[in-house]
Amino acid sequence: MNLPMFEKDKANHAIYGVVIYGLSSILITPVFSLIAVFITAVAKELYDNYNGKRFSYGDIMATQAGGIIGFLISIIN
Fold first, then answer.
1. Does the residue 51 lie in any domain?
2. Could you tell me where the DSSP H helices lie in the chain?
3. Which of 35, 56, 70, 76 is deepest in the core (most CB within 10 A)?
4. How many domains does the chain have?
């Protein structure tokens, strides 16, 4: 069985999404933590776009996927 290979950049975004969710969930509710992940992801892409890099919806989705993974982990515990 072959596992899917992810771009290094997308995997990093997913990991950061989990970390942002985990840190923000210490202070705010799970739903607002997911919103914080989304806002952070969009802000990062706007920053990239402003500095001459390309705006990537895929990066936002990868970061948000990490936030959702963090959310799922938190409701399991």
1. yes
2. 8-24, 30-50, 57-76
3. 70
4. 1
Q: Quote the pTM value.
A: 0.86
Full pLDDT tens readout for the chain, 77 residues: 565 666 788 999 999 999 999 999 999 999 999 999 999 999 999 999 999 999 999 999 999 999 999 999 999 87
In a domain, 2, yes or no: no
From residue 30, alpha-carbon distances to 20, 21, 35 in Å are: 12, 8, 9
**CB under 8 Å to 9, separation ≥6 — which residues?**
59, 62
Residue 58 domain-assigned?
yes
> Structural domain of residue 69, as residue ranges?
8-76
Domain assignment of residue 32, yes or no: yes
Question: 21, 67 in Cβ contact below 8 A?
Answer: yes
- Rounded CA-CA distance 77/30 in Å is 13
